[in-house]
Each structure stands twice: as structure tokens, then as C-alpha cells.
Amino acid sequence: MHNSEILWFDSLTESVAALAVAARETRFADQATRLASWHVEPARIHLANGQLRVSRECEINPQVIALEQIRALCRAQELATALLYENTARAYAYGTAAAVLAVAKGERPRFVELQRDEVGQYILPVDLLPDLRDVLSGWAMSDRLAWLRNDVIERESALAAGAFAADYETASRAYDLAAGLADSSYMYGEEAEAALHFLLMTTGTQDDFEEKQ
Fold this sequence. Notes:
Helices cover 64% and strands 5% of the residues. It has 213 residues and is mainly alpha-helical.
């Protein structure tokens, strides 16, 4: 079927679902890189005592050297994957929330609309996640969505505070509070996606389907 023949709400739900899959894949990748880092932790590895002479004055343990190099690679990969997961999960949250709000206003968006920067990161809105309680007053899970929204906002605020902190201790406390932002955003996105399906079932999309026939 050509894109022009796909009903707008089918196209929109497919767009949100594709964003959900992207967030899920980055979540799996984040978990995998954390596991890979754990596998080279010195606390769980039996170290060999043998030494290797690399010069007359220097002896090294080749296993220790290899583990240090592997850990450095794992740490770099873990950081990069964590940032990718966080950015994609937040895009899922913001993109889906925007779709819910648009449908609630009577609009008929065919796609989630997001911008990306020159390095491939999604550009997130400067505004906070919208409060959708009024437009979802008939939905049983609206309170949970509101709670998840507050959790995301609190973690985002802590992340911003850490970035502008004047000293290490303040920054460290802020980043501790911000931990879990990716997971929180991902859970919000899942709940917002369910809210979108609820709205589409209750806001007259059947008329669009009948017109298409």
C-alpha cells in the first residue's frame, strides 16, 4: 500500500512504534555493554602471577595489561551506548507525548516529528513534557502517566543542575539524582504510547476509516 493510502492514524501509530523499537534496541545495547564491563572486573577474575619482561628494567603481568586495555574499551563503549539510549528514550517520550497532544487537539499527524543534529542525536524540545491529565481524563492510567512525567522532569532537572554545578560534590549529587533518566523516559514513552492508542480509539477515527472506504 502506498503511503498516501495509509490512514493517518495507522501511519502515526507505526511511526510511534518504530521509535519505541529504536529505544528498546538502545536499551538492550546499554544492558549488554554493562554486562561486558562486568565480565572484566578484577574482583571476579583469577589473576595469573606470571610476569613478562619487556625490557631489562621492566616486568609486567600481561593479563593485567590486557584487562586494563579491555576495561578502557568497555568503559568507552558503555558511556557511548548509555548516552545513545538516553537520547533515544527521551526522544521516544517527547515524540509520543507530542503525538498524544496533537491528536487530543483534533489534529491528524501522520508521523512523529523530531529533529536531529549533525552527529545524529535527536534534538529534544526545550519545554518540559506536557501535562496530559486534562486530555486523558477518561483514561484509567492517566495518573500513572502523570507520575512518570514528574519523575522524568525531576531527573532532567538534576541532570541540568549537574552540568552547571560549581564543584565536584554538588555535580556528583545531582548526577546521582539524574541516574535512571533513560529508563524513566522509556517507561514514560511506553505509557504515552498506550495513551495514544486510547485516544485514537475514542476520538472519532472510525469516521476517517469509513470515509476511506
